[in-house]
């Protein structure tokens, strides 16, 4: 019986794209939670990419590009009066980056650039020095360097080939951090951990694991679960926060996730969580296929007659019905549920319809997420 179910599970995972989650998930704290004061900060800036091979902005269609070009040249001491520029070797771009936590001045980070005008490609361009500001308006980094574009396009008189995106790219290590964040890690009196997937059971389990560690090291409890996402850790006396964080983030805890079924109707992908249960329900699935075939026949007149060539219609209609099998689904565990769905023998779109119908009937004891 186990061999039979194993074959059905392999066939269903290959044909119907059903992903099965493990029975229990044991993870390190650093993999399921992040330090509140150690989060990234988003930066943004406006700049120019130069050196393009005629694939930049049309200055008439993108007036802000021409204004930026004139302002840059004036700052370099070059007069721009007396004529309009028609160069298409420059493009206005928006530059974004994520400032890493605890970043220090002088370190580097990657930046992403995206075209703002009607440029067709940024390949081969160079980003001119661009300041990156945070939400508070302060400048935290300056970016400059060659733009790396993974996409390409080729165009001829009768055909065009495009692959990937050519109007966006990256500048690896293109930004130098000029200002550090005002907060200091070791100035705090506690550590606030935030779960990436909020869950009360996981938060309480994390606090208990930290308290077991603290009783052995410091002789008392230091962690408390405030809600489903936040666990607050008080700093023990004479403890170093960096050393404490290094020990805590490597503690292994059991994570818990809600029962959930995720369905992507565009790709036909179905992901069923481990704790999904289905109450006993009978399911029948069948499809009616109607095929209409047109085979017109050309009719010729008799020789030496005054008749005309005509087309005689000929229509064939065939109707067939597949499926119709009634199966009993009683998903006390994931293996039984998958085997029951596979026993009906339908395609992924059919399984999606069945899951939606079971949810409507109130027999699916899980959250159904449609994408």
TrEMBL record:
Keyword Signal: yes
Keywords linked to the UniProt accession: Bacterial flagellum, Cell projection, Cilium, Flagellum, Periplasm, Signal
InterPro entries: Flag_FlgI (IPR001782)
Cleaved signal peptide residues: 1-25
Record HAMAP family: FlgI
Matching PANTHER family: FLAGELLAR P-RING PERIPLASMIC PROTEIN FLGI, FLAGELLAR P-RING PROTEIN
Protein name (database record): Flagellar P-ring protein
Name of the gene encoding the protein in the UniProt record: flgI
């Amino acid at each position: 019986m186990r061999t039979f179910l194993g074959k059905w599970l392999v066939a269903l995972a290959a044909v119907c794209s059903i992903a099965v989650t493990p029975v229990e998930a044991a993870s390190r704290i650093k993999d399921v939670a992040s330090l509140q004061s150690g989060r990234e900060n988003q930066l943004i800036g406006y700049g120019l990419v130069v050196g393009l091979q005629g694939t930049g902005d049309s200055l008439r269609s993108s007036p802000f590009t021409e204004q930026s070009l004139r302002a840059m040249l004036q700052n370099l001491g070059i007069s721009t009066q007396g004529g309009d520029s028609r160069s298409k070797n420059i493009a206005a771009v928006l530059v974004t980056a994520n400032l890493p936590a605890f970043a220090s001045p002088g370190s580097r980070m990657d930046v992403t650039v995206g075209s703002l005008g009607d440029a067709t490609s940024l390949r081969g361009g160079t980003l001119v020095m661009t300041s990156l500001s945070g939400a508070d308006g302060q400048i935290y980094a300056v970016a400059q360097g060659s733009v790396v574009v993974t996409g390409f396009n080729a165009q001829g008189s009768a055909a065009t080939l495009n692959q990937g995106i050519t109007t966006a790219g990256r500048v690896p290590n293109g930004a130098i951090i000029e200002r550090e964040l005002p907060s200091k890690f070791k100035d705090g009196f506690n550590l606030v951990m935030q779960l990436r997937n909020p869950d009360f059971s996981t938060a309480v389990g994390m606090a208990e694991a930290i308290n077991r560690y603290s009783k052995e090291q410091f002789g008392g409890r230091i962690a408390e679960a405030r809600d489903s996402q936040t666990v607050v850790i008080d700093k023990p006396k004479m403890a170093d926060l960096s050393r404490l964080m290094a020990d805590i983030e490597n503690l292994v805890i059991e994570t818990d996730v809600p029962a959930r079924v995720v369905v992507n109707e565009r790709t036909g992908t179905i992901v069923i969580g481990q704790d999904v249960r289905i109450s006993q329900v009978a399911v029948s699935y069948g499809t009616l296929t109607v095929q209409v075939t047109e085979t017109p026949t050309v009719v010729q007149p008799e020789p030496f007659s005054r008749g005309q060539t005509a087309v005689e219609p000929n229509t064939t209609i065939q109707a067939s019905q597949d499926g119709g099998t009634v199966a009993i689904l009683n998903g006390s565990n994931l293996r039984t549920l998958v085997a029951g769905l596979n026993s009906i023998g339908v395609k992924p779109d059919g399984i999606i319809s069945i899951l939606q119908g079971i949810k409507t009937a109130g027999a699916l004891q899980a959250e159904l997420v449609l994408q």
